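User: Here's a structure from my thesis project, written as structure tokens. My advisor, Dr. K., wants to see whether a designed sequence matches the one we expressed. Can you design one independently, without my sequence as a hint?
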């Protein structure tokens, strides 16, 4: 494995503005002793040194600073002024030094960083990445963001892995397949832990998702194709069997044996009579092979108009669900712990609205499991060969077969481009 490591906020605790001039190369008289390592970072690098084929520091900061810290503190080679998330500098560096991508596949690399720019850079090169959240790891100059709402946003940047400590990163090196999301790898056992909140019933409301549905470049594991198949009119029984087998295995091994809760009931968000495929969620629920009673508790009111997907704002989505979805009034949920399934997590509004309805009906703990979560799009460097604009071209995926193509996204798809489409590669 070849490790690519961000520096500021990942190995050294330099987010405070007092380091500004140093990082930008304006103060070159600084003492190395003034640059605090994040607790555990030096040991982390020592362990990586034994276990990785190569390690490279990739930083947006100035070379006069990056070079000294990288070499004198960590003994590592470095690339400064990387210009994240633009891929050009890192790509040409890797091409020159390592013959990337001809001599290495992207899966031999792992990019570890603490910001969305790091993740976007890695995704732009189709390299697997780690979003590292060290906020509760004792970094002294770090603000303490609200863990739950902040975490969901950071996970939706679409890194391959989300870690809260250096040890978790090392755990990925031990077993990269097992640490992948449940529906991204046959061996995957991880879920995206989007939110964990204590609720007013003295219980917890937990939101998890089992695979990334990517937009734009990603890595080889993104589950766009699987998500598309799940929602396809042509969804086969065989596909449903395989996906419910994978989710059942996850529930049995990672949820139902956790010990903290005993789950009383499994349900799913309601299918409309017009949903394609018919009973999209209900048939999935019934296909699960788990030792938990199942009940279809939610239904749409017959006068429902429009679709939640046409409500881009979170608050409108919540209102839409609360207006048109009903929870079975005959269900006895008092003190119960309920698992709810949905196919896609975007803003979290559906999840929270359904959890609230269950709590209002007396449930104590709610685990909302989305099969796929939509990750943020990544800008790409290519400009349009027809209109010449930069920044309007994105990677999109065909509905028909899931194949990727370039699109100079036109206004009808909320872009500013001319509508040009082109093949990739
Ligand atoms: Zn164009």
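Assistant: Designed independently from the structure alone:
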């Amino acid at each position: 494995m070849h490790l690519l490591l961000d520096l500021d906020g990942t190995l050294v605790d330099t987010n405070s503005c007092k380091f500004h001039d140093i990082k930008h190369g304006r103060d070159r008289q600084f003492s190395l002793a003034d640059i605090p390592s994040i607790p555990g970072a030096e040991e982390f690098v020592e362990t990586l040194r034994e276990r990785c084929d190569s390690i490279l520091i990739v930083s947006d900061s100035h070379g006069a600073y990056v070079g000294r810290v990288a070499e004198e503190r960590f003994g590592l080679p470095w690339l400064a002024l990387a210009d994240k998330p633009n891929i050009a500098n890192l790509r040409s560096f890797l091409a020159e030094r390592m013959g990337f991508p001809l001599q290495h596949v992207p899966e031999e690399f792992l990019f570890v960083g603490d910001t969305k720019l790091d993740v976007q850079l890695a995704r732009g090169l189709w390299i697997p990445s780690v979003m590292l959240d060290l906020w509760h790891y004792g970094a002294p100059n770090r603000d303490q963001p609200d863990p739950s709402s902040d975490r969901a946003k950071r996970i939706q940047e679409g890194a391959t892995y989300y870690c809260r400590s250096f040890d978790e990163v090392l755990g990925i090196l031990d077993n990269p397949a097992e640490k992948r999301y449940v529906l991204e790898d046959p061996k995957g056992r991880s879920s995206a832990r989007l939110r964990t909140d204590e609720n007013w019933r003295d219980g917890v409301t937990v939101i998890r998702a089992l695979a990334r549905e990517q937009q734009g470049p990603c890595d080889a594991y993104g589950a766009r194709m699987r998500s598309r198949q799940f929602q396809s009119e042509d969804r086969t029984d065989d596909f449903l069997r395989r996906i419910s087998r994978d989710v059942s295995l996850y529930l049995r091994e990672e949820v139902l044996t956790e010990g903290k809760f005993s789950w009383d009931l499994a349900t799913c968000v309601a299918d409309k009579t017009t949903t394609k495929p018919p009973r999209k969620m209900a048939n999935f629920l019934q296909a699960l092979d788990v030792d938990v009673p199942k009940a279809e508790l939610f239904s749409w009111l017959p006068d429902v108009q429009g679709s939640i997907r046409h409500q881009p704002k979170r608050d409108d989505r919540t209102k839409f669900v609360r207006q048109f979805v009903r929870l079975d009034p005959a269900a006895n949920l008092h003190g119960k712990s309920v698992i709810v399934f949905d196919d896609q997590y975007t803003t979290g509004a559906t999840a929270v609205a359904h959890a609230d309805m269950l709590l209002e009906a007396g449930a104590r703990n709610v685990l909302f499991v989305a099969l796929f979560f939509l990750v943020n799009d990544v800008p790409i460097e290519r400009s349009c060969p027809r209109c010449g604009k930069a920044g309007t071209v994105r990677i999109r995926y065909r509905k028909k077969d899931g194949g990727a193509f370039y699109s100079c996204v036109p206004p009808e798809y909320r872009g500013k481009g001319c509508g040009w489409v082109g093949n990739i590669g």
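When you compare it with your expressed construct, this may help: Confidence is low (pLDDT under 50) at residues 137-142.
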